[in-house]
């Protein structure tokens, strides 16, 4: 199952390291190539980045390497494994979206989904929180 195989590492306190620098730093530490072997998603609102590994690596060993790396420490960043979650946030949704549509969409195996327990719509933000019955359907 591809959703299970994708391992992710969270980097916190990323504000002192610009996005391009962070990508190069992660390539240097991992020995892997951005886009081919892993992707990086930035969440600037909370000074966090998430590296998701397409290539199979020992993420615990990678987190340990990051914690000991001179540049990571200079930037005061921390690295940890991304824990499984049962909820995701969908953003930039059309105003007319319904909770029924989102339920059916996220339950579709073609979209990497699984059984949905709950959908909370936030029309003022054009977003929703989708809660799955188990953490396998949150790719």
TrEMBL record:
Domain PARP14 second RRM per the UniProt entry, residue ranges: 7-83
TM regions (residue ranges): none
InterPro entries per UniProt: Nucleotide-bd_a/b_plait_sf, RRM_PARP14_2
Pfam families xrefs: RRM_PARP14_2, RRM_PARP14_3
Highest taxon in the source lineage: Eukaryota
Protein name: PAR14 polymerase
């Amino acid at each position: 199952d591809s959703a299970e195989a994708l391992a992710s590492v969270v980097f916190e306190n990323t504000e002192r390291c610009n996005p391009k620098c962070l990508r190069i730093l992660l390539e240097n530490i991992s020995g892997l190539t951005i886009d081919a072997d892993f992707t990086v998603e930035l969440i600037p609102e909370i000074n966090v980045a998430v590296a998701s590994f397409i290539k199979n690596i020992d993420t615990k060993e990678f987190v340990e390497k990051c914690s000991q790396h001179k540049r990571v420490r200079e930037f005061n960043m921390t690295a940890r494994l991304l824990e499984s979650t049962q909820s995701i946030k969908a953003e930039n949704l059309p105003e007319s979206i319904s909770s029924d549509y989102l339920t059916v969409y996220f339950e579709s195996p073609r979209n990497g989904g699984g059984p949905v327990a709950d959908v909370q719509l936030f029309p003022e933000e054009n977003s929703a929180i989708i809660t799955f019955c188990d953490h396998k359907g949150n790719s």
